[in-house]
What we know:
CATH topology of the largest domain: Rossmann fold
CATH superfamily of the largest domain: Response regulator
Order of helices and strands: EEHHHHEHEHEHEEHEHEHEHEEHEEH
Strand order of the largest sheet: 1-2-4-3-5-6-7-13
Helix content: 40-55%
Strand content: 15-25%
Shape: globular
Low-confidence stretches: 1-41, 90-97
Number of domains: 2
Number of strands: 14
Structural class: alpha/beta
Amino acid sequence: xxxxxxxxxxxxxxxxxxxxxxxxxxxxxxxxxxxxxxxxxxxxxxxxxxxxxxxxxxxxxxxxxxxxxxxxxxxxxxxxxxxxxxxxxxxxxxxxxxxxxxxxxxxxxxxxxxxxxxxxxxxxxxxxxxxxxxxxxxxxxxxxxxxxxxxxxxxxxxxxxxxxxxxxxxxxxxxxxxxxxxxxxxxxxxxxxxxxxxxxxxxxxxxxxxxxxxxxxxxxxxxxxxxxxxxxxxxxxxxxxxxxxxxxxxxxxxxxxxxxxxxxxxxxxxxxxxxxxxxxxxxxxxxxxxxxxxxxxxxxxxxxxxxxxxxxxxxxxxxxxxxxxxxxxxxxxxxxxxxxxxxxxxxxxxxxxxxxxxxxxxxxxxxxxxxxxxxxxxxxxxxxxxxxxx
Length: 390
């Protein structure tokens, strides 16, 4: 019996390329190989002429380079799609007996962070003639191991791994099997030769804390992500760097361990509020944890931002809908998925990348959840309300 049944679900919205979902079901499953068509391939020079840009600019877009203006990138990608360039490039690189499938390996879909990346990948595969197989590891290295055991049967053409555990042995196994791959937001250090897409997590963490400092906060707490994940460590380092640069003593009691889930935001906020000298601002290492912060504050009648300022990280879709809308550090998640796919398509076509490591910028998005620290008189009233609740 196979551990995974491949369910072919053709998405019904828009011009979807379709996704093959890999789910843990104890049943045999098979799918038909899809036919590939290969229209006459346009050259990069022809693409550049059609788009009205230089050949190097087209090359930078194809290689997932970040140094292209967003409007120019969108225009060039549209020309590429209309010309069928990505379709023919990928088709040219397909191995004999391959399935025309791209594997996307993610922890799960509980976090909107992941779904935004999936959307970016799916968008980039439109009109490519390739299908997307989505597999879940449930944040366990064993899940990645099971997936690796299945890809030979699947005859996959390439893989994108999101928040992969990054053990060199597993990446080496993909290389040994001749399967091109790109890692998105890797958990641990990867070599310079590993194709990867990430963001400036250290800078994002520092900018978030600098913003709170500029508002007058000095008691700034952080609810971190897992210590095993590189992006989490980088955000913590950015937090520390901002406080040190401002001459603010780092209080270890204000740094609370989280796991990127809503419950940890709630639990650690409750612990922070129980301190003799609680913080006036909380920086959550991702937006889901920030929602947990909101819940803990709401239940204690602590108003945001009058009594407590809150900043998240990711800028997932609902952050501008909650009240008050959440100030956060934006990761270009959709773009990360698109660029990773563009890089993978190049590798499938047997073409080299200008750079194996693409690092996209993070941006502070200021909304309604941050303000100056409460005045001493307001703080005293808040303490009285808190003691009454207890």
